Amino acid sequence: MMFQNKGWGSEDRKHRRSNIAATPLMFVIFLLSFSCLVTVSTPSVANSFKDAKAALSREDYKQALELLMPLAQHGHASAQYLVGKMYHRGNGVRRNEREAFNWYKQSAEVGNADAELQLGFMYLYARGVQGDTAEALKWLHKSAQQGNVTAQFNLGQLYDTGLNGVQINPKEAAMWYRMAAERGSSLGQSRLSRLYQMGSGLKQDWNEAYFWWCLSVSKGLHGTFIDYAPGAKRVTQEELSAAQTQKLEQHLSPKQIAAVKRRVKTWKPIKTIEK
Fold first, then answer.
1. Nearest in space to 184 (alpha carbons), one of 96, 76, 271
2. Which CA distances in Å does 21 have to 10, 18, 24, 117, 274?
3. Least CB-packed of 58, 117, 198, 260 within 10 Å?
């Protein structure tokens, strides 16, 4: 059997032309309608989120949750993170780490760096989910790569100390400590100084050790942890800081010390780009 091509009659051709002409017009009308919807809804969402943050700042958690929950349920990543944080801390709701984990995960999956950080911690310390060091590292890396200084420092610490079964890697530790230090983390600066002093993960350099140490103590926060042996004399943080400064200066000439202090005065942290 052969198929017969009957062609288009005059009425058919006319109907086709009218449909083709109408299609672009309908599409334009749709786009205009959609743009009006976005224009109306976007400021509304922004205002609701702004009001929610204001409520949180004055600790009006009931109102904050009422404003955040509809946004979070419709995929607003920052709202999802804040709802997770409220459940995590028990602000205005019964503390529920599993619920916090679920909201953090939704937010992290669309790239919220703060949620990625918290999700990493929850996997690391088995909060609201079964502990999983590999998952913890994955999410901490994602957050750190977006410039989250807390994530950068904690990755450095994990690779430095081998906490939670993480394989010690001095080069990785130095890299992440440096990222945190360059963005103004006094803890990162203190730890980077120690690695330069020890020659761990990078070449020993007393100039650099002294520089990063001076930056750290200039803020009054140097992140040195005191581990007292039984019966050992206890010292203050100020005494410990002074002793470390003196120890580093013993490896430098007065000219080198003066040069480092000038460098400290002009140093500025790298600004993290907010996304």
1. 271
2. 17, 5, 7, 53, 46
3. 58
272 vs 275: CA distance, rounded Å:
9
| Site of tokens 């672009």 | 24
- Phi then psi for residue 272, to 5 deg, are -80, 130
pTM: 0.79
Residues whose CB is less than 8 angstroms from the CB of residue 130 and which lie 6 or more positions away in sequence, other chains included? none
**Which tens digit of pLDDT belongs to each residue from 125-141?**
999 999 999 999 999 99
Burial class of residue 19 in the structure, from the number of CB atoms within 10 Å of its CB (0-12 exposed, 13-18 middle, 19+ buried)? exposed
Torsion of CA 238, 244, 245, 248, to 10 degrees: 180
**H or E stretch at 130:** none
Which class is 49-143 in CATH? mainly alpha
Q: Please give the structure tokens belonging to residue 144.
A: 């750190």
Q: 31: buried, middle or exposed (CB in 10 Å: 19+, 13-18, 0-12)?
A: exposed
Instruction: Count CA atoms within 13 Å of residue 52 on its CB side.
Output: 24
Q: Could you tell me what percentage of the chain is helix, strand and coil, using 3-state DSSP and rounding each to the nearest 5?
A: 70, 0, 30
Distance in angstroms (rounded) separating the CA atoms of residues 193 and 130: 35
Handedness of CA 205, 209, 210, 215 (dihedral sign): positive
